[in-house]
Design a protein that fits this description.
Strand content: 35-45%
Structural class: mainly beta
Radius of gyration: 17 Å
């Protein structure tokens, strides 16, 4: 199954629908209707600019599957989904891109798949010389409030930025911090311009007052 969008507005989340140049594929149909009843097991979202995130949304507005992303020059290949997913009418594929400098909208994102099968996506707009908190793209809540008592088992973290370009105060990972300020987890912030961000697989139990941040020093 192929989805295609020839034009995306950087910084604006959008649905991509069925299509593909030179393919015998109906165009402009949402993912769920296009593949109703089919079970998908692998996926990859390729961007010609800089991808920030991609995921599948069900008909009730719930994120049900993160999708690995890459640029068209850094693709490593289609990868397994977190679990097989049966498509139903109402499901859509949502994506967000930015420019290669990360100046259009959110420029850092992390998608979590949890042990109970739930999915959350967080983003942040990193700015030079600052520490910025991540928030849920759906509720705008920090990780602790959004995911209290859930256990993360897999994550995709991505950015087009060189977070420690100045080799001074930046940090090349997204940090999950406890309420006391201790580091609970660090997810490598893979630069999507140079390769395909991999799945990061290790368990992290989220507590109510946990936060997650990105520290950027590009000067």
């Amino acid at each position: 199954m192929t989805l295609n969008a020839q034009t995306l507005t950087d910084g604006t989340a959008a649905e991509i629908s069925s299509g593909g140049d030179g393919l015998n594929v109906v165009s402009g149909v949402s993912l769920g209707q296009y593949g109703e009843g089919e079970t998908i097991t692998h996926g990859l979202a390729m961007f010609s600019d800089a991808g920030v995130y991609a995921y599948i949304l069900d008909g009730n507005g719930k994120i049900v599957m993160p999708i690995a992303i890459c640029t068209d020059v850094g693709a490593a290949g289609v990868v397994p989904l977190c679990r097989p997913l049966r498509l139903t009418t109402g499901m859509t594929c949502q994506v967000l891109s930015t420019d290669t400098g990360g100046s259009q909208g959110s420029n850092c994102a992390i998608s979590f798949y949890c042990s109970d099968g739930t999915v959350e996506v967080f983003d942040a707009t990193a700015t030079n010389g600052n520490t910025v908190q991540f928030a849920s793209i759906q509720t705008n809540q920090p990780i602790g409030q959004c995911m209290q008592n859930r256990t993360i088992v897999k994550a995709y973290a991505s950015t087009p930025l060189a977070l420690d370009a100045a080799e001074a105060t930046g940090f090349m990972g997204f940090q999950v911090l406890s309420s006391e300020g201790y580091t609970k987890a660090v997810y490598a912030a893979s630069n999507v311009l140079y390769g395909q961000p991999p799945a990061q697989v290790f368990p992290v139990r989220v507590s109510q007052n946990d936060t997650m941040q990105v520290v950027y020093d590009g000067s």
